[in-house]
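input
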Amino acid sequence: MIRYQKLGYVALNVSDMDKSCTFYEKIVGLQLVERVKDGPAFFRCSRDHHNLVLYPSERPGLKRVGLEVENPEALEQAFEHFTKAGLNPKELNKNEQKMLAQGKTFRFKDPNSCITFEFYSDITQMATEYKHTVTKIARLGHVVVKVPEFEKTIKFLKEVMNFKTSDYLSESIEFLRVFPNSYHHSFAVARAAEHQFHHVNFMVTDIDDIGIARNRMINNGVTITNGPGRHQPSGSIFLYYLDPDELTIEYSFGMEEFPEEGARKAKMLERNRLTLDLWGGKPDPRNCAFGYIEGAESKVQV
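output
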């Protein structure tokens, strides 16, 4: 089955590139790599060329999810596997691969969640380390979506894409890791009436990053929608806030890790507010409440 290295990057659609580029660099603390005229802007929080990509759009939300597999052999195996599964994966042309600073890359659209997933094994490693500024971001953590076809989506992610469940709230939300990556979840799915972006997460280096970020958001007029608090499922301390399009961004510190072999079984968690925040916080109604999923209006293959 498919073996992943990590959640490689998340691509978001934003309505105002200038405003969003400033926000993600100066407020979130990502490092701008390059901005293509009338096209995407690439940001990083690692040695990778990008971990977040912004695209101009009138429909802000999730554009696609980039998954890095372990090696070129795993990429070939994945392409063959998804072809046999009838997903019609399409390799990107050389020009787009060059723009993305990636090697061989292919995409397909999940027919259940309507998410475009992208697969690659090679991405340009930058000459210098990512430079911390306002926050010591450790890595891109996870992305979460809402779907109406909850059971079908979970079945697809586990049986076709080889994701593994870490914990779940029965018929409500499921936390999945991209096997054999050790982190509690790189992807999660919540039940909803419509397809919708939920949030994207960046993991930070220490708890001071959470406290300092809270004050930075307040001082810069950024809306905090939840936290600081602590999640029961992963054990992480969190802070949620809104970007200029009111897409939800999360910082988190700490996360349970799983061994490749002998991992504990997934826990079925109580549907209780304290499960999502052991500190008893009450989220703002705008928390994780907005964001289109590109392609959800159509089931045509990309």
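quick obs: The CA atoms of residues 230 and 237 lie 4 Å apart.
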